[in-house]
Amino acid sequence: MTRRAPATERLTVAQALVRFLAAQRVERDGVERPFFAGVFGIFGHGNVAGVGQALQQYAGRLRYYQSRNEQAQVHAAAAYARMTNRLQTLACTSSVGPGATNMITGAAGATINRLPVLLLPGDVFATRRVGTVLQQLEAGWSQEVSVNDAFRPVSRYWDRITRPEQLIPAVLEAMRVLTSQAETGAVTLALPQDVQAEAFDWPAELLRERTWHIPRPLPDPAALARAVEAIRRSERPLIVAGGGVIYSEATEALRALAETTGIPVAETQAGKGSLSFDHPSSLGAMGATGTPGANRTARDADLVIGIGTRYSDFTTASRTAFQDADVRFVNLNIAELDAFKHAGLALLGDARATLEALHEALAGWGVAPAWREAAARYNGEWDREVERLYRLGHRPLLSQGEIVGAVNRSAAARDVVVCAAGSLPGDLHKLWRTRDPKGYHVEYGYSCMGYEVAGGLGVKMAAPDREVYVMVGDGSWLMMSSDLVTAIQEGHKLIVVLIDNHGFASIGGLSASLGSAGFGTEYRFRTPDGSLAGEHLPVDLAANAASLGACVIRAADLAELEAALAEARRMDRTVVIHVEADRETRVGSYETWWNVPVAEVSEDGSVAAARREYERQRAAERWYV
Ligand SMILES: Cc1ncc(C[n+]2csc(CCOP(=O)(O)OP(=O)(O)O)c2C)c(N)n1
Ligand SMILES: [Mg+2]
Predict the structure, then answer these.
(1) Which end of the chain is more exposed for a tag (fewer CB within 10 A), N or C?
(2) Chain mean pLDDT for the chain
(3) Which of 384, 394, 369, 240 is nearest to 314 (CA)?
(4) What percent of the chain has a predicted confidence (pLDDT) above 90?
C-alpha cells in the first residue's frame, strides 16, 4: 500500500462551492444530467466579492442569471425543478439582509411544493470583529443569530458556514436532501461574507464530478400484498393522482392500471395531467376546485388510492370529500409523511415502480362495469359543461372561463399553462383540458401571488421547445411581474395573458359568500365617507407591461383575444395580452366545500346567516382515523 498526501486545491470558499455545484450530476433510469442548470443572483456587499467573484471566475462552468427580485429567482428555480421532475434545479445567491429575506417566501413555496432549490444567502461576518454591518440584525440575547435563521422552518436542510472546512460536510448533506425524492425542498447554506472570500486547501475529491442516483424503491412486499388485497376487496375504488405521479414519470403506468382495472382517476392541482382530460377514466379535478364527477365519486368511494398526493385541504374539501362510513385509504408515496395520512395503508415507494407492481398483482381483477361506466359518463358530462363555460358569450366583458377556453384552444398539446393565485387556479383546475403530463403548472401548494411570471420563466428555461402561457390576474401582476425583464433579457419567450378585473375577484367572491360583501378587495379610490368604494383606480397594466419591454396586445372581446393569441404564437418574443374580465361571472363550485371560518358573533345579519351555513357544512367534516 502506498500512502500519498491527498491532492488539494487552494480556492476560496465561494470558488470551491461554485466548482462543487458545477460538478454535481443526477441519474435516473440510466439518463444522466447536470443537477444545477445555473445560479440566479442579485449582488450586494454580502456576496459580490465572494460568490460573485467565484461565479465570474467559473462562468464557463456554471451560468449566472440576473434577476430582479430574490423572491422571483427562487420561484423560477422551483418552477425549473418542477418542470424537470425534480431532477434539476438552480441555486440562488443573495446579499445579506433584505436580499436574503426576500428569498424566504420563495423558499417556503419550494418546500411546501416539495421542489429542490439551493439558497445561498450572504450572512454577516463570522469573525464578529466587523459590526454592526449594514443590514445586520442585532439581537441582545445572542450573537449567533442573523436574519438567515428565519430560513430554518422553511428549509429541509439549513446550515451556516462559519469556517471554510464546514463547507465539505454541508454541501454533501445539501445534495443528499436536494436529490432525495422524499426529503427535497429548499436547502439553505448561509454564507458569512468574510468566510466566502477565505481560502482553504480543498481535497480534490470534493471537486470531482459526482453522480447522485435517484432510485425507484418498491414498498415492503407485505405492505404491497395488503394493498392488493384491499383493492381486490373494494367495490368503489378511486385513485387520487397527485404531483408524485408526474415527478416519478408514472403517467403511463397509471393509465395502464386505470384501463385494466377500470378504477377512475381524479387529479389534484399538482397531479393534473396525470391522465389526459379525454380519457374515459378521467374524472378531472378533485376536491374544493373539483368536478361534479370527481366529487360524487369521492363521496361514494369505499377505497381511496392516493398516489403521490399530500392530501391538501383543497383535495379533501376540508376533509368532507370522502363520505362512505367505512372509507379506507391506500397511500402510495415516496414520503412517509404523506403515506401515513388518513390512517392509510402506507405503500412507501416510487410511484412508477409500485404502479407497475400493483398492475401485475391485480391481473384479472377489475371494478364492476357500472363503476367504470359511471366514470366515462361523468367524463362526457363534464366535457360538455367545460364547453358551455368556454362559450358563455358573456358581454360586454368576457367571463374568465371564456378566456381560459380561448387560451386552451390556442395552446398545442405540449404547451404549458402557468398560474398560482387568485380565481384562475380554481378555474384552470376545473376547465383546462390537459393533454400532456407537463402541460399544467399551477403552483397551488403555496399559491403565491407573484409566482406567475417568475415561474413561467423557470418553466421556459427548462422547456424552451414549448410555448409557455402565463395566466395572471391584475393583483398578482402588481405584486411581482418584474422578472418579465429577465425573460426578455434571456430571450425566453413567454405568452402572458393578463386578466384585469380591477382587484382581488377571488377573495372578493369568497368574502361575499361569507357575508362580508367583498370588503377591501377592489381597486377603488377612497370616498369622502372614508370607504374604498370610489371610482376604479386608473391603473394601465398594458402600458406597465410595455414599459418592461414586452410586446403588448389589448384584447376587448373574444375575436380580439383569439387574434391576439394567434399573433402571439407567431411572434418570437415575449407578448403580454391584456384582457378585461367580468368580475362577477364566476365558475361555480361543484358539490364541494372549503372550510373558511366565519365570525361566530357579529352585528351583521349576512355574516350571521353565513355562520349558520358554515356550521351546517362543517358537520360533514371527518377525521379519517
Ligand atoms: C402573496 C400572497 N398574498 C395574498 C394572497 C391571498 N390572495 C389569494 S388570491 C388573492 C387575489 C388575487 O388577485 P388577482 O391576481 O387579481 O386575481 P383574481 O382574484 O382577481 O382572480 C389574494 C390577495 C396570496 N395568495 N398570496
Ligand atoms: Mg384580479
Answers:
(1) N
(2) 97
(3) 240
(4) 99
Which amino acid would we find at residue 379?
N
Distance CA 187, CA 174 (A): 6
CB burial readout 532-556, b (16+ within 10 A) else e: eeeeeeeeebbebbeebebbbbbbe
pTM over 0.85, yes/no: yes
| DSSP 8-class letter at 577 | E
Judged by DSSP in three states, 147 sits in: helix
Using the predicted structure, report yes or no on whether residue 225 has a pLDDT greater than 70.
yes
Pocket probe mutation, ligand 1, options 69, 500, 504, max atoms within 8 Å of Cβ: 504
Rg (CA), the chain: 25
Do 329 and 304 touch, CB atoms closer than 8 A? yes
Give 433 Cα–ligand 2 centroid separation in angstroms.
Answer: 23
Compute the distance between CA of residue 484 and CA of residue 575 in angstroms, rounded to an integer.
Answer: 10
| Percent above pLDDT 70 for the chain | 100
Give the ligand at the shortest distance from the Cα of 479. 1
Find the mean pLDDT for residues 480-506.
Answer: 97
Give the tens place of pLDDT for each residue, 113-148.
999 999 999 999 999 999 899 999 999 999 999 999
Confidence of residue 429 (pLDDT cuts 50, 70, 90): very high
Instruction: Please list every protein residue whose CB sits less than 6 Å from any atom of ligand 1.
Output: 421-424, 447-450, 473-476, 501, 504-507
| Angle subtended at Cα 160 by Cα 159 and Cα 163, rounded to the nearest 5 degrees | 125
Ligand 1: which atom is nearest the Cα of residue 479? 1
Gap from CA of 443 to ligand 1 centroid (Å): 13
Is the pLDDT at 504 greater than 80, yes or no?
yes
pLDDT digits (tens, 9 = 90+) for 46-74: 999 999 999 999 999 999 999 999 999 99
3 state DSSP class of 385: helix
Dist. CA 515–CA 536, nearest whole Å: 23
For ligand 2, the distance from its centroid to the CA atom of residue 514, given in whole angstroms, is: 19
Atom of ligand 1 nearest to the CA of 501: 20
pLDDT for the residue 1: 65
Distance 474 CA to ligand 2 centre (A): 5
Q: Which is the closest atom of ligand 1 to the Cα of 503?
A: 16
